[in-house]
Specification:
alpha/beta; Thiol-disulfide isomerase/thioredoxin; Glutaredoxin; five-stranded mixed beta sheet
Length: 171
């Protein structure tokens, strides 16, 4: 009986942290998702639309991460390498820290202060993250020059489709 209960508990908790690719790979954002508010390092409110507008005409990699996320921290050196190898691409870091204090500490601790950083003050569950089927971090998306989604789902900066998408868009 104990084994059955343990298996059942593992199954229930396993459902909450699935890293399965979504069935539908979206190519654009909903109006509601674009209106999602984040905070910048100074605590000023900014929408996803405003962030994308700042990078219009450029290829953008969205990097969802958090300092408490072991997988994110293991991926950080490869993410930095991807950024270094693509100097004409804008990298935007979307933090899922649990507090503004945690956000600030992570930016300092992981030398992220000189990057485009934003924090989901509303938490993990919000219009944007729900729309993009955010079910795991780290997560990477490639956005094209017109703010369309070119690569919807990657959970590693080493995913070869990230680089091939960047290469295709940069031609």
């Amino acid at each position: 009986m104990k084994k059955l209960l343990l298996l059942l508990m593992m199954g229930i908790f396993g459902l909450g942290c699935s890293q399965q690719a979504p069935k539908v790979l979206k190519t654009g954002f909903s109006k509601e998702a674009l209106q999602q508010k984040l905070e910048d390092e100074e605590g000023k409110s900014i929408t996803i639309q405003q962030i994308l507008d700042q990078h219009k005409g450029k290829v953008v990699v969205l990097d969802f991460w958090a300092g408490w996320c072991r997988d994110c921290l293991k991926a950080l050196p490869k993410a930095e390498e991807l950024e270094k190898n693509n100097p004409n691409v804008d990298f935007v870091f979307l933090s899922l820290e649990r507090s503004k204090e945690g956000f600030d500490k992570s930016l300092e601790r992981f030398n992220m202060k000189d990057k485009a950083n934003y924090w989901f003050a509303s938490g993990w569950k919000n219009e944007f993250n729900n729309y993009v089927d955010l079910n795991w971090i780290p997560r990477y998306m490639v956005i094209d020059q017109k703010s369309g989604i070119a690569k919807y789902y990657a959970i590693s900066p080493e995913d070869p489709e990230i680089q091939s998408t960047i290469d295709r868009l940069s031609k």
